[in-house]
Amino acid sequence: MTKQKQLEELYLKNQIRIEQLKSGQIEEWKEFLKKLDRELRKTLSGNNLTDFKRQRLEKQLKKGLKKKATDPALTSFLTTLAVAILKVLVGISALGFMGIGMTSFIAVLGAAGLAVGMALSGTLQNFAGGVIILLLKPFNSTPF
Predict the structure, then answer these.
(1) Of the candidates 58, 53, 62, 59, which has an alpha carbon nearest to the alpha carbon of residue 93?
(2) Looking at the 3D structure of the chain, how many domains does it have?
């Protein structure tokens, strides 16, 4: 095939694409982009609401743990953990709200959590034991 013929075929293919775009695909793209813009705006406004709820959750959690006289390090850890979980849940729900299928995403997230949990099982057991000791305080430091 000569270069001239290749150029002619390329030109014809591009002409067909331009005609397809003129025939209504541009309108479809415009509608898609408008819908995406609306969904992003809703998600961002929901994110502002989530920040308010995050602050409220953080304050209530700290207040409740302080009332139980929990160790300050544990209070900080549990508050950070709760906020991180809230952020992950909000992120997943925002993606679902935008129309992205969440079933497979959550399955992958669960499988990754299981893999990490199995890989670090001994470490996680010791960590959980430390948290339980800090929460329940079964030992007393006063002399007999």
Answers:
(1) 53
(2) 1
pTM attached to this predicted model: 0.54
Residue 98 near residue 39, CB atoms below 8 Å: yes
133 vs 71: CA distance, rounded Å: 10
Query: Quick check: is 124 in a domain?
Result: no
Residue 126: inside a domain: no
126 pLDDT more than 80 = yes
pLDDT digits (tens, 9 = 90+) for 101-121: 778 778 888 899 899 988 888
Q: Is the pLDDT of residue 99 over 80?
A: no
Site of tokens 């305080």: 137
Q: Which domain holds residue 16?
A: 3-101
How far, in Å, CA of 70 to CA of 129, rounded? 15
